[in-house]
């Protein structure tokens, strides 16, 4: 068997200080921001291959990057 990666279990603290809560909140904000920033039109897509799906995702990402660059300029 091959082991890929290692996860470290965090120790249980005797006194709660809120650092893990803040870390989780920052993670949630980051994920929410990524979901809002990517402009892939809603709908159900059926692709013939993974290559076609990746191309559509890349095209949407490029379009979004162009929009952001135009807003910043």
Write down the overall mean pLDDT. Answer: 83
| Terminus-to-terminus distance | 53 Å
User: Secondary-structure element sequence?
Assistant: HH
Task: Name the beta content range.
Answer: under 5%
Number of helices: 2
* Computed CA radius of gyration, to the nearest angstrom: 20 Å
Biggest β-sheet strands, sense, barrel: none
Ranges with pLDDT <50 over ≥5 residues? Answer: none
Range of helix content: 55-70%
Shape: flat
Number of strands: 0
- The structure class reads mainly alpha
Q: How would you concisely characterize the structure shown here?
A:
With 73 residues, the protein is an all-alpha fold.
Task: List key phrases describing it.
flat; mainly alpha; 73 residues
Any overview of this molecule?
The chain is mainly α and 73 residues long. The chain has a domain at 42-73. Helix content is 58%, strand content 0%. 0% of the residues are buried.
Topology:
Elements: H1 19-37, H2 50-72
């Amino acid at each position: 068997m091959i082991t890929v990666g290692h996860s470290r279990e965090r120790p249980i603290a005797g006194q709660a200080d809120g650092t893990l809560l803040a870390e989780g909140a920052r993670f949630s904000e980051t994920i929410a921001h990524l979901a809002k920033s990517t402009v892939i039109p809603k709908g159900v897509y059926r692709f013939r291959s993974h290559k076609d799906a990746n191309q559509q995702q890349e095209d949407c990402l490029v379009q979004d990057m162009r929009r952001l660059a135009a807003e910043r300029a």
